[in-house]
Amino acid sequence: MNNALAKPTPIITKPMIALFVMLGTFPLWGEAVGLYHYLGVEIVIWIIYALGFNLLLGYTGLPSFGHGAYFGVGAYAYGLVQLGLIESVWAGVLVAVIAGAVAAGIVACFLSHRRGIYYALMTIAFGQVFWFIAMKWHTVTGGEDGLLNIYRGTLSFGVFDVSLRDNVPLFYFVFAVLIIVVICLWRLVHSPFGKALQAIRMNEMRAGFVGYNVWLIKWTVFMLSGAIAGLAGGLFAITQESAYPDVMGLHASGYIVMLTLIGGGFVSFWGPVIGAIVFFVARDLLGSITETWLLWYGLMFMAVILFKPEGIAGIWQDLSKKLSRNQKQNAPVVSQHVKAGE
Amino acid sequence: MALFEATHLHKRFGDQVVLEDVTLSFEKGQLSGIMGPNGAGKSTCFNVLTGHYKPNSGTVTFEGRDITGLSPRLIAGMGIARSFQIMNLFDEFSVLENILVAVPQSIKRSFNPFHDICGNSEAIDKAESILARVGLKGKENLIASSLPYGERRALEIAVALASDPKLLFLDEPTQGLGADGTALLADLISELKRDYSIVIIEHNMDFLFSLADTISVIHWGQVITTGSPDELRENEWVKASSLGEVA
Known about the structure:
heterodimer, A: mainly alpha, ABC transporter involved in vitamin B12 uptake, BtuC, two-stranded antiparallel sheet, 2 strands, 2% strand, disordered C terminus, B: alpha/beta, 6-stranded mixed β-sheet, 4-stranded antiparallel β-sheet, 11 helices
């Protein structure tokens, strides 16, 4: 039973290895090119966040403009565990994931029968609810200041401990989390569930007639995306040694949409990864030149949307298609997600 | 007992009555046709039968079970598949992926996040045999939206076949096809007829009369008559209407 058309999905792919090698060696060369270790930590956390966000936006076509809420919920959950319950990084991260999933799961109950602009507006509204709670519920969230003095703590592996006080061990911790997230999500998008997500994006009605439980799939992907945002938020709280409402605002929620689109989340699994790297490097490089770096980043965003909505990954795919066409003329057009996976 | 029965269906949109006391039954192993002029209520009838709309009153049963008002997903799960008049494919998927998302091996595992469907050779074998059946062998890796119109029609039917339906509804399959395309489609459907129970809505009378075992005529939301193509040719109403000219 070996069908020529069967293309088993490899667990590890070349782009994955390239990303892991590049990020894994970052502490060795980062400072030499004028970057710094802390930036690496931030980039890795936002890659995790963006990959989870893209399950919704790129794969299922569901626009969430209030996703900062679940990132923030994860950050607060981590902080509350450390300050009030138990000083354990593992427990904090676990609770952050669960908190993100629960918050998103509740919201998704109100969203999953909607689509398009109504879906988008509802996500904004719920995002604002969470932001408002974070701002006003002083006794729990610390209001505008947020939760302070969340110490970075120590990772306990039973036989030995690793202190996360320095940025390099912290970097390798979040990097290890990223590896797990990438491998799991890569598998997920090639599973029947992942295909169903894409089918819903392309044709929600037909997906229902084919036999998929569209409501439940939309609910599940929102909850899952919220769980990953919660995970990223928990890691962010470790990094920042605090949790504060800024990350939950409309602004921060907008960044994740913009960077996913610039990277090319609609056409490639790797879009959000590219987007997160470009966003932070642009912030630092442009930010060192001008205070108004967001203006230039915004203009870049507009240029991408106007001229190449498929983003940087789309430009890359066009180039590699052109290259392979020069080598092998008249190659048939192959499905983009299949292509992106190679 | 018939495979599929609809009794006394009524459907209103606001105060407009679209279906009035429609009673239809489709037998196992047969090809049943529904015909009628534009605006007669054919498509609404189809949408009520396949769960897209809920009827205001009346019942629909399939294999003796009441399926009135169930969601399209549940109806599909019982073994009823449908194609669409306006093409409804997963446009950015390849031809193969369009079938692959619709085979039972995928639907069963809708919530399995780790099964590798692209490497499931059982599912792919099945998808391939369906594609071969509708004449799309060798085009598996083309993107659905890049196919010519006639092949998109064939793929539309193939997606419906992917679920191993016990009953297949086809909504105006000849819509937009030229004479050649219609002839090819007629070959395909007469071949499928051997294995599937099929219901077709059509306004192309030549096409329907050459394929169907029984035909129901719908006009003004009511079933006017039901019979074999030969009986219908003799029917006074059909003769008197423009439908009779082609028949």
